[in-house]
């Protein structure tokens, strides 16, 4: 796969760059370091932001704005008449294929459109391949790298090493294998509760089966694993009665129609008392089933729920209510998204906390989570409880005759489900349950007394038979319920088992993947180890401060420590390194990683990354880039594009600009209203534009361009003939640049004149002194730089252009040494 | 050991839902809704697998 150099960038109407109908057009050489110098406020940052927007679709600075600040209104230049922006990038593949160009437009409504004038079939996808962490670097990126948490640093580093996808995949697997999330999303807890409820229902059915079996057959039920045989014994016992034979024999219990059986008994002996006895026996059977509930278990469950309610109330008391919960959740989002890096400051009032904000938020949210967990436990305990079934059975039992409007189960169920259950509600429900269970005893006693009375009045055989049939029916119903519960349990258990299988698998997959990601990351760290250490040494010129990157064993954390600090070992880099050292370390790591990266971009844009460096360290960094990192000197190197506003660095740029491996540009202009130009757009182009403006009588529009032209030509003279300038030359008031240049040139000429070493011809010296310099000072410096007076006339401005050209010519001579005559610059003021 | 060797059925489910897994973290941001969607897809796949195993067993 080819990698791409950035060879051209044109911008119109974006951020500080207006350039309406005349885009800023920057060209970059893949085989040179490309530097762009601009004093503050001349569009340098807008260039970097244009690249960010083109490649990432966003501008970090605008992303930090709040919605009410309307960040969308600040992408396009606010003085561009169409309120639209266009950015065109041209890339040169490193395999010799033809260049490709991508155009990104943003219209007045904020829509982004990506097209390819060179015909790339999918320009948006192409741009996404350029989203590599090393391609666009600014000072903030470097300073954050050392300052951020080890985890964030580890993730940034993964992206830097081309392992962002692995890092994100690891995070995704970790999220997908999180136990709490799995329990919720896969309903593992719900299934466990359903299994427990089915087990309890089966147990209750078994109690009924045991008692009814004994009532029908007169024998105890001994083996619950042989219930089919028990069912046969029940049918045999009932089928042995002559009256019932035809309805029962040769049928399985499941097929016996107990309605028919009861009808047969009724028809054998009809009458009111017979029917009343039958009803009474039905009630007795039902009441006995109610009496079989294990009230001790119910009491334990009531107690357990009470303890959980106390726990929940205690945990809730530690929290501060729903509004604060939302506040902590928002804070957690802000912290985890990197929106608030100062962990010891309050993000609301920005005061010092004296403690760790992220830990505090985690602690507070954990209290809410604990309370929610306990509420959920109350619900689960209730749903699976024998108490719930006991209460339900009692309230619905016909013999107890509980009116629907007096039933408490629906309300209790709703309170528990919603989490609103209180100790008072619980106590009321427990009392109500006790009332009902006590009512069973008295109702059973009354029913049995009534049965005895009726039995005395009716023939004994049929009385007993009616009772047997009723218990037979109860056995049949309980057997069905038992089997249903067992089936239900098996279904839930199978679903739970397969989920547990997944849980084990995804945990295994996460551990395996994390291990592999860790190994790759360690190998990558190892692969750049010598390189970043050597770069750091080269930039800082120190040998006894040696940084080390250490990847944590089971996390993505990346620690930065000093393996050597002036003879001491294994110390914290964050604690010891000054800002410049930190940035040098971050730059070394990023550039070393970029060198081994094989992603699509083969260019690095550095925006003001030397802000914390003094002149010496700036020099060493630039030399490192120029000599070791820039391709093609380094065959696997990258193309560097350096943006800077640093006056001292500009001197370095000036010295190397125009040499075979350095291309330098300087931005000038008056953004955000006026246009921005750069020198490489050509002094001749500037001059042509000026002349056409002057021809049209537009003197005031031509003035900024004339200033640019003047500065270019004067600085060209200074560079070409090696005129020394004061150290603060470039950082003086920029509006005084022309006179600064004239002063530097005048002083140098004067010095050489007095020393008798001036190489200029006498006519050139005389023209300088008496004509060109006075003309420029008189027609330009005294007007423009002082800001006094009105605009200059078109005629005067033409004179300024002529004077500057003539002045530059005073530093050149005709060289006839090569056979033909060539116009050349003096090498210096004392040498041809 | 490959994931297929650990548990071929589960590995197939993971592979089938890989896109949904990757969507849980995008540009460094974790998305809990995407996580829940992924787990829902997994739950459906697990139940289908269970059903298929049951049918196979019955046949």
Automatic annotation (TrEMBL), chain A:
Q: Name one Pfam family in it.
A: AAA_23
Protein's GO biological process: double-strand break repair
> In terms of domain of life, where is this protein from?
Bacteria
Query: What's a single GO MF annotation on this record?
Result: ATP hydrolysis activity
Q: Which residues form the Rad50/SbcC-type AAA domain?
A: 8-101
Which PANTHER family does the protein's record reference?
ABC TRANSPORTER ABCH.3
Name this polypeptide is given: Recombination protein F
The top of its lineage is: Bacteria, Pseudomonadati, Planctomycetota, Planctomycetia, Planctomycetia incertae sedis
UniProtKB/TrEMBL annotation, chain B:
Superkingdom, natural source: Bacteria
The name under which this protein is listed is: Uncharacterized protein
């Amino acid at each position: 796969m080819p990698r791409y150099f950035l060879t051209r960038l044109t911008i119109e109407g974006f951020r500080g760059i207006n350039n309406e109908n005349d885009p800023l057009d920057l060209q970059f050489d893949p085989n040179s370091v490309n530097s762009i110098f601009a004093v503050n406020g001349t569009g340098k940052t807008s260039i970097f932001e244009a690249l960010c927007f083109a490649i990432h679709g966003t501008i970090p600075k605008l992303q930090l704005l709040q919605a009410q600040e309307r960040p969308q209104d600040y992408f396009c230049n606010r003085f561009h008449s169409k309120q639209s922006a266009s950015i065109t990038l041209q890339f040169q593949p490193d395999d010799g294929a033809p260049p490709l160009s991508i155009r990104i437009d943003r219209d007045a409504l904020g829509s982004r459109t990506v097209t390819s004038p060179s015909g790339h079939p999918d320009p948006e996808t192409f741009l996404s391949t350029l989203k590599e962490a090393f391609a666009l670097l600014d000072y903030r990126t470097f300073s954050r790298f050392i300052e951020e948490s080890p985890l964030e640093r580890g993730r940034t580093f993964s992206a830097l090493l081309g392992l962002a996808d692995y890092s994100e995949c690891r995070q995704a697997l970790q999220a997908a294998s999180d136990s709490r999330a799995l329990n919720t999303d896969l309903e593992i807890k719900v299934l466990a509760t359903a299994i427990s409820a089915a087990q309890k229902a089966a147990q209750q059915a078994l109690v009924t089966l045991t008692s009814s079996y004994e009532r029908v057959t007169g024998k105890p039920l001994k083996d619950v694993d042989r219930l089919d045989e028990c069912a046969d014994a029940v049918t045999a016992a009932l089928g042995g009665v002559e009256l019932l034979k035809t309805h029962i024999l040769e049928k399985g219990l499941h097929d016996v129609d107990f309605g028919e059986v009861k009808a047969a008994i009724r028809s054998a002996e009809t009458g009111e008392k017979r029917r009343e006895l039958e009803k009474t026996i039905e009630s007795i059977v039902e009441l006995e089933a109610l009496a079989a509930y294990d009230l001790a278990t119910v009491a334990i469950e009531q107690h357990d729920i009470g303890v959980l309610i106390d726990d929940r109330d205690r945990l809730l008391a530690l929290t501060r209510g729903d509004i604060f919960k939302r506040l902590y959740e928002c804070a957690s989002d802000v912290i985890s998204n990197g929106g608030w890096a100062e962990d010891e400051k309050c993000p609301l009032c920005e005061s010092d906390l004296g403690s760790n904000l992220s830990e505090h938020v985690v602690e507070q949210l954990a209290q809410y989570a604990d309370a929610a967990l306990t509420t959920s436990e109350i619900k689960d305990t209730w749903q699976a409880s024998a108490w719930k079934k006991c209460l339900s059975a009692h309230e619905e039992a016909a013999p107890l005759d509980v009116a629907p409007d007096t039933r408490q189960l629906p309300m209790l169920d709703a309170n528990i489900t919603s989490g609103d259950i209180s100790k008072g509600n619980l106590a009321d429900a427990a009392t109500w349950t006790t009332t009902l269970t006590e009512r069973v005893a008295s109702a059973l006693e009354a029913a049995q007394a009534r049965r005895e009375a009726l039995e005395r009045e009716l023939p004994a055989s049929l009385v007993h038979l009616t009772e047997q049939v009723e218990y037979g029916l109860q056995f049949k119903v309980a057997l069905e319920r038992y089997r249903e519960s067992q089936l239900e349990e098996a279904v839930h258990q199978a679903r739970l088992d397969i989920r547990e299988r997944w849980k084990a698998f995804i945990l295994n997959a996460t551990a395996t993947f994390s291990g592999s990601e860790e190994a790759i990351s360690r190998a990558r760290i190892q692969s750049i180890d010598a390189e970043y250490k050597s770069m750091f040494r080269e930039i800082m010129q120190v040998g006894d401060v040696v940084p080390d990157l250490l990847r944590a064993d089971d996390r993505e954390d990346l620690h930065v420590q000093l393996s050597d600090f002036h003879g001491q070992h294994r110390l914290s880099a964050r604690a010891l390194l000054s800002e410049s050292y930190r940035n040098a370390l971050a730059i070394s790591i990023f550039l070393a990683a970029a060198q081994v990266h094989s992603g699509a971009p083969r260019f690095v844009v550095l925006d003001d990354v030397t802000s914390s460096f003094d002149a010496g360290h700036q020099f060493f960094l630039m030399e490192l880039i120029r000599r070791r990192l820039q391709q093609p000197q380094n065959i696997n190197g990258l193309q560097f594009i350096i943006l800077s506003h640093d006056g001292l660095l500009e001197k370095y740029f000036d010295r190397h600009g125009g040499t075979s491996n350095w291309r330098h540009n300087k931005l000038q202009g008056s953004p955000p209203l006026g246009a921005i130009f750069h020198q490489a757009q050509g002094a001749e182009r500037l001059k042509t534009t000026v002349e056409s403006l002057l021809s049209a009588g537009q003197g005031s529009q031509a003035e900024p361009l004339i200033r640019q032209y003047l500065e270019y030509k004067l600085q060209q003279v200074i560079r070409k003939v090696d005129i020394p300038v004061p150290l603060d030359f470039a950082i003086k008031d920029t509006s005084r640049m022309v006179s600064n240049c004239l002063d530097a040139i005048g002083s140098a000429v004067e010095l050489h004149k007095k020393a008798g070493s001036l190489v200029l011809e006498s006519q050139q010296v005389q023209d300088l002194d008496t004509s060109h310099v006075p003309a420029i000072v008189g027609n330009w410096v005294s007007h423009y730089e002082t800001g006094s007076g009105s605009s200059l006339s078109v005629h005067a401005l033409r004179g300024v252009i002529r004077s500057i050209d003539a002045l530059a010519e005073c530093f050149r001579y005709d060289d006839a040494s090569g056979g033909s005559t060539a116009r050349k610059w003096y090498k210096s003021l004392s040498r041809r | 050991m490959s994931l297929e060797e650990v548990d071929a059925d589960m590995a197939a489910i993971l592979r089938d839902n890989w896109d949904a897994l990757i969507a849980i973290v995008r540009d460094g941001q974790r998305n809990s809704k995407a996580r829940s969607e992924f787990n829902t897809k997994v739950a459906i796949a697990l139940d289908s697998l269970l059903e298929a195993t049951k049918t196979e067993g019955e046949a």
